[in-house]
Amino acid sequence: MTRVHVVGAGISGLSCAVRLARQGRAVTLYEATGQAGGRCRSYHDAKLERSIDNGNHMLLSANLAALSYLEEIGARHSLSAPKEAAYGFVDLRSGARWTLRPNAGPLPWWILVPGRRVPDTRPGAYLAGLRLAFAKPNQTVAQVLDPADPLWPRFWEPLTVAALNTAPEEAAARLLWPVVRETFGRGAAACRPLIARDGLAASFIDPALSLLREAGAEVRFNHRLRAIGFADGRAAGLDFGAERLALGPDARVVIAVPPNVAAALLPGLTAPDDGRPIVNGHIRLAQAPPPVPGMTAERPFLGLVGGAAQWLFLRGDVVSLTVSAAAELVERPNQEIAERFWADTARALDLDPAATPVIRIVKERRATFAQTPQALLRRAPARTRWANLALAGDWTDTGFPATIESAVRSGRAAAQVVTGD
Hints:
- By secondary structure, the protein is of the alpha/beta class.
- The chain folds into three domains: 162 residues, FAD/NAD(P)-binding domain; 91 residues, no CATH class; 95 residues, Alpha-Beta Complex (Polyamine Oxidase, Chain A, domain 2).
- It is built from eleven helices and 19 strands.
- A seven-stranded mixed beta sheet has the order 7-6-15-16-17-14-18, with helices on both faces. Strands 9-2-1-13-19 form a five-stranded parallel beta sheet, with helices on one face. Strands 10-11-12 form a three-stranded antiparallel beta sheet, with no helix packed on it.
- β1, α1 and β2 form a beta-alpha-beta unit.
């Protein structure tokens, strides 16, 4: 039986391996570290004495590939599923709070209702998003939309940063359009926020590993690929340092690693070479806080405007905050970041700012590639010039931003390439 060697056990590698295993293929999955998941993982933090995710990830009901992956591994039920598509926000400077509520159906009449849209904004400012569909390849979001409009700091800028992990002044306008088209462009049914109820590992990682093992796949941790041998237009060997593997004529390989690692392994590969950081903070409170406007048990998150953090998530007595496109913040000392995060949290949740909770700061310096017009030209397709080798990763040319959705799509594309299906 043809064996497929999948290198990298992040979401893209897992989705590829799962798809292949479910097809009855022989699969070996390699991971350089001792844990699967890549940026999408959970672990016990000794300082907080809690299990936390290394970062905060939210799916939308429009993320059909990611939801299909969860169905495949039997974990769709592990996501919270609020009945209403609604997003609470708080302006930390003014104290103003509002909730965005898209309506059912693709006709966006919700922008005509003041109680459903951002305060002090005009309906036309939302419709301006249609300009993204006609953006030129070299245009940024800030060049297509109007940064002077009141909607900009409370909607377009947070949406761009959250989706692309790149400041709108340099983020590719063409890459934001699929996000708008697939979510707000399709109405409330496509905009429902979905969050891993018990953590990322419980939803995306552990069930996938269980499925792979039950299907007879090999999973090898602490196997860092050092080099690939090539011969006659094919991958002929994999060098893991202490172990070298010769590949037979029927073997297939999927490289599902970050772009800088892939570029070092594959001669002549063009890949995005500039990363953008994300900073996360996890705060253990003395007890779970009382509800505040904009948050519910089904929607335990808030969008933050005017502070250091952009999003706040609550799970029990742990508050997690996220700053995307965090090039400036990532260089600041952890103590300073912690103080700023606590100030944001205290204002957002009406807590005592003088309290001194336990806080963990997590910095991801290359969380995603810089999703600029120039970088989009460097996204590689799944198919490579080697007959038996394919690429996967949220940085490959999926047509979507570097998110869980993109990672799953890339894994499935790679599986299709190596099997010919």
